Amino acid sequence: MLAERLVGLLPPLSGEDAIAVTAIHSVAGLLTPETPLVAAPPFVSLHSSTSAEALVGGGGGLAKPGAVSRAHRGVLFIDEASEFGTRCLDALRTCLEDGEVRIARRDGIARYPARFQLVLATNSCPCAPPKDVDCVCLPAAKRRYQSRLSGPLLDRVDLRVTMRPLTVMLGPELSPPETTAVVRERVRRARDRASSRWAAHGWRTNAEVPGPALRREFGLPRSTTRAVDRALATGAMTGRGADRCLRVAWTLADLAETDEPTPDHVTAALEFRERRTA
Question: Which of 61, 81, 114, 199 is the most core-located residue (most Cβ within 10 A)?
Answer without folding.
Answer: 114
